[in-house]
Amino acid sequence: MRTVKKRIIIVQDVNEFIGRKKTLLSRKDFDLLTVTSGHEALFRGRNDNPDLLILNFYMPDLNGYNVCRELKSDSSTEHIPILIIAAHGDEDEDPGDLTKAAGCDGCIKKPIQYDDIIPAVEELLGIPPRRHLRAGTSLPCKITDEDGLRDCTILNMTPEGVFVETKPAPWPGDIVQVELPLDATGTPMTLQMAVRWSRDSSEAGPPGAGCEFLGAPPEVVQWFKDHHASSPEGSKEQGS
Description:
By secondary structure, this protein is α/β, with parallel strands linked by helices. Helix 3 packs parallel to helix 4. The chain has 2 domains: about 5-125, 3-Layer(aba) Sandwich (Rossmann fold), CATH 3.40.50; about 135-240, Beta Barrel (Thrombin, subunit H). Strand 1 (about 5-10), helix 1 and strand 2 form a beta-alpha-beta unit. It is built from 6 helices and 12 strands. The strands form 2 sheets. A 6-stranded antiparallel beta barrel has the order 6-7-8-11-10-9.
């Protein structure tokens, strides 16, 4: 049975921030629609029947507070969950208080981290948090990001991604290339992966990044699933 994707409308007047949020959300198989103004958000909210609307608190034409108030006061759109992203000092009053008064379902203050927005989105959409068994491994590979190409090691894996030990650690939201030999001939295969979270050398545990597959070939994903399932070390339950 094919799963129907949840439709999310993202509103943001800064294109770079739009791209960053889309990077974070694209890994969760949502149907994303990006708009660039409050008036367009209001129109889309009324006509596209989204499952979730993510607003920026401050927009030059119509701010997120007013968009939220309009939609929540309309019986045909009041059911749409609304999440507002707010910077400190957006207004004289606390954005959290203003958005709550407008009927907003959630408010996150910048700077945004993956661990802030994804759980909030999942909660508003009624999606239970995913938990997977992580299988320990020691798989040499190479990673390429804005710091260039370097050797690293995959220390554990789930059916959806890996933890790559590397220094410096890439930033959450980055897209990286991970190269590793998967077949008997040692022919390298390059995978595009999205960084979900990262840990630097000042924190407990090895520095590196938790990465999720982005469009990996089915045979590669199956290889990771098989390797994960057969590992005797995959008995510790952690968040994916």
